[in-house]
Amino acid sequence: MGEKMDRGNDILKSHVSDAQAMSIRQTRRGWLQECLGCEARTEFKIFVGGNQIADALEDADCCCRLCCSPIHPFTMVVKEANTEAEMITIDRPFRCAFSSCKCCCYQEATVTSGGQELGSMKEDCFFCVPSFKVKAPDGNPIYKVHPPTCCAGCCVNCCTEGNPCCGRGCCKVPFHVFPASQEKTDGDAPYIGKILKAPKSLGVEILTEADAFDITFPDGATSQEKGLLMGSAIFINVNFFEESGDDNGSALAALAALAS
After folding, report:
1. Which residues pair with 111 in a beta bridge?
2. Does 199 map to a domain?
3. Which residue range(s) make up the domain with 119?
């Protein structure tokens, strides 16, 4: 194998090179617009530890957001909180919604940093459990990402984080990160990272569609790979949660229904 590359600008590297975890919080903006049926632009604040390191704001046409959500095209620039210097840019084209047994028009997004392509995310062809691959700029897969499974990989496991209806698993929706070369990724197969849709306060759940994600990076991940997983969390949000209304904690079951 060749030497592991680590693309990305100095701003990205300075914030994520030593980070083991990251939190992405969607801003509670536009709640009145949401009540009136309008779609505000998606905005995130990004934290490492307790420190906010970046902001991100969606750049998308208003009509597309309203009529084609959640499959509308957009560009999102993640900027350093204090200087507004670019860390990464996520470009997501118009594609068909995530669904089983598709043969084309897969959901995808590209991540760049300082004009360099870090890689991309692209939906897999799947039957029961939605999944996508995180790829290097040359198209070679780095990670495979999907919800935890049971029944030999045929079903989404709703109870991985605990009871999904109450208790510690309430409103938690995990996506596990596996090496792309790992053949077994179902059941109790070991994973190396996680993107977790985290529970929010009751007021946030009721009044807004704001989502929250906690990322646990794989050991030894480069800044380039961490930038791609940042983009993957936003990719997961727009494809599975922008229209899901999953405040009752049953979103994993809804993901499984994609296969039907």
Report:
1. 90, 119
2. yes
3. 10-259
Give me the amino acid identity at 146.
H
Distances (CA, A) of 249 to 70, 86, 95, 188, 229: 20, 34, 27, 22, 23
Q: If you search the block for the tokens 């109870």, which residue do you land on?
A: 159
DSSP annotation of 5 reads P
- CA dihedral for 229, 92, 59, 71, sign (positive or negative): negative
Q: Residue written as tokens 């780095």?
A: 142
CA distance 24 to 100: 28
Residue 44 resides in a domain:
yes
pLDDT digits (tens, 9 = 90+) for 69-80: 778 889 999 999
CB crowding 111-129: b at 16 or more within 10 Å, else e: bbbbeebbbbbbbbebebb
CATH number at residue 251: 3.20.90
Cα 218 to Cα 117, 130, 164, distances in angstroms = 20, 21, 25
CA 27 vs CA 24, 122, 126, 218, 259: distances in Å: 10, 26, 32, 26, 31
Report the pLDDT averaged over residues 95-103.
90
Domain count of the chain? 1
Q: What percent of the chain stands above pLDDT 70?
A: 75
In a domain, 3, yes or no: no
- Is the dihedral angle over the CA atoms 163, 164, 168, 174 positive or is it negative? positive
- Residue 4 inside a domain? The answer is no
Q: What pTM, to 2 d.p., does this model score?
A: 0.86
Query: Where do we find the tokens 């990719």?
Result: 235
